[in-house]
Design goal:
Layout: E1 4-10, H1 17-24, E2 30-35, H2 42-49, E3 52-55, H3 61-71, E4 76-79, E5 84-86, H4 88-99, E6 110-119, E7 122-123, E8 132-139, E9 143-145, E10 154-156, E11 160-169, H5 175-195, H6 202-219, H7 226-254
Length: 256
């Protein structure tokens, strides 16, 4: 039976990391943590839990996560973020997948998992979230992370199966923390767009917020999630708009 390595990248995740580690310990043959020089107790918490911890300067999500995969002892890896939690249903499913001896276990070189979002005290059921299936478990001899700064993915040579259990994403502690993440992610995204030579018009920046908000709040049913749905739609539209605005700003700086 193949063994499974859990890999996690961290930076100042002391508020989340133990919850994540507890959720994977039942099926992880090892836990590899790559930390981006945290200034809190993340590293000591991980070491006390029994993780193998590496320190590495952050140079992009794709490259950082691939480095973590490369440090694993096993070919099968499960990449989980430090603010995600594996539900009990998913824990049992993963254990069954990697301990099955009947021949009906692992049939694909990769597996996708549904992720839901815990936001402002509740799981969002609408708002354009909760229905995404992310490739998280894979055979590293047949796949690797894309080399991008943000919104990285895993490319695998072969098919991918679907698991029924889900991950719960505890991404935002409060609105201020959400805004910090928006600022960081949009800067990385704009840098990536600029390096790709992409450009946007100021008119598109002006219409991006209202069109995005309508999409999340009305078309994707954010209003059904109450006040958290409204705030998610508002902040998601802000994120989409700032990506464009910062890309325009970078281009203006490059061409005075």
């Amino acid at each position: 039976m193949p063994k499974l390595s859990v890999v996690i990248i961290t930076f100042n995740e002391e508020a989340n990391i133990l919850r994540t580690l507890e959720s994977v310990k039942s099926f992880a043959d090892e836990i590899v943590v790559v930390d981006s020089i945290s200034t809190d107790h993340t590293v000591s918490l991980c070491r006390d839990f029994g993780c193998r911890v590496y320190s590495r300067e952050f140079d992009g999500y794709g490259t950082q996560k691939q480095f973590a995969v490369d440090q694993a002892s096993n070919d099968w890896v499960f990449s989980i973020d430090a603010d995600e939690v594996v539900t009990g249903e998913l824990q049992k499913e993963i254990i069954a997948l990697f301990t099955d001896t009947s021949g009906s276990g692992i049939r694909h070189p990769a597996y996708r998992i549904r992720r839901t979002l815990h936001f402002m005290g509740r799981i969002l059921r609408h708002s354009g979230v909760g229905k995404e299936f992310l490739l998280r478990i894979f055979d590293r001899t047949k796949g690797r992370f894309t080399n991008v700064a943000v919104h990285e993915g895993i490319e695998v040579n072969g098919s991918s199966g679907m698991l029924h259990g889900c991950l719960i994403h505890f991404s935002y502690q409060n609105i201020a923390h959400h805004l910090e993440k928006i600022n960081s992610y949009t800067s990385l995204a704009a840098k990536g767009y600029s390096e790709q030579g992409r450009s946007f018009s100021k008119i598109w920046a002006a219409v991006k917020f209202p069109t995005s908000f309508i999409s999340f709040y009305i078309l994707k049913g954010g209003f059904l999630d109450g006040y958290p749905g409204f705030m998610w739609s508002f902040l998601a539209a802000t994120y989409a708009t700032l990506k464009i605005a910062k890309t325009i700003e970078l281009k203006q700086e490059q061409c005075p």
